[in-house]
Amino acid sequence: MEELARFDTHLMDNPDISGVEYQQGTLAGYETREYLLQKFGHLCAYCHGASGDLVLNVEHVVPKNPSQGPKGTDRVSNLVIACKTCNEAKGNLQPEEWLEKLRTSKKKLDQIRVTNLPKALAQLKEPLKDAAMMNATRWALHRRLKALGLPLETGSGGLTKYNHTQVMKLPKTHYYDAVCVGKSLPETVAVSFIEVYTATGRGNRQMAGVGKYGFPIRHRERKKVHHGFQTGDLVAADIPKGKYKGRWQGTVAVRATGYFDLKNGAGKRICQGIAARFCRLLQRANGWQYEKREVCRAFLHG
Ligand SMILES: [Zn+2]
Q: What are phi and psi of 293, to 5 degrees?
């Protein structure tokens, strides 16, 4: 959260982020800075905080305007995070020049820099570790959303979990997380059921089962319609007695025997061997599967 506050300030200091700047890389500059902060763990790459200076800058390892030698670029492979103190101490020196100079110094801070500088140089070409990359990406996304000027809130995974279980007291189902993110929580959460349509296959067109050498071993029934139903039809069944007594609805798997199986929307078998005469056609199989699913709707502030 501390980081978030700092970030917000940073953006507010630059209120005129426009589409043009966006294109020309000003925002890319912020993203580079975030990337580097993550990479160097919010510490000066030269003194690791030993200077006590909290102001962190993006530092060109090979200077852009060197006193001698090659000119540095703006590429991340030439950039580190450095405190203002170290940044100014290094000035326009090449890293090798600065290292030589530091080696002659008796100051404790300089000796720390002598240890850290080669490590920083080695780190230049290393990519971000996964977790750091995730953080940098998250903040880059945040910046872009913020630039749209719409209300934006952030929260940690811990806050979401706390809201979910302690404040909203919702069931564990993960989709409820969506209404538990951030500080503003919905006053009510309504859960409704909607029809969800999913495309489904149109059955196996192979006309014979084959053995392990690929020769036909059994014929498949050419006839697809049995007792007025075909596999995949959505049916309702009112079963008067027996194991499946009651009302059922699902997609049917037909058998020539006239005893069918029913599957629910999730593809799970709900009835086995129910008589065709108890079934009523609701929807002809048409390549779609119908299922009822829970969807969560949140109403903010009543
Ligand atoms: Zn430093």
A: -135, 155
Rounded to an integer, what distance in angstroms lies between the CA atom of residue 288 and that of residue 293? 15
82 alpha carbon – ligand 1 mean position (Å):
5
Could you tell me the pTM of the whole model?
Answer: 0.45
Cα–ligand 1 centroid distance for 86 (angstroms) = 4
Q: Is 195 helix (H, G, I), strand (E, B) or coil?
A: strand
DSSP character at residue 220: P
Q: Ligand 1 centroid vs 97 CA: distance in angstroms?
A: 17
Residue 1 CA, ligand 1 centroid: distance in Å? 24
Residue-wise pLDDT for 224-273, tens only, equals: 788 999 988 889 999 999 999 999 999 999 998 999 999 987 788 999 99
The CA 133 to ligand 1 mean position distance, Å, reads 23
Q: What percent of the chain stands above pLDDT 90?
A: 38
Q: Report all structural domains of the chain as residue ranges with CATH numbers, in order of start.
A: 2-147 (no CATH), 157-198+295-299 (no CATH), 202-286 (2.30.30)
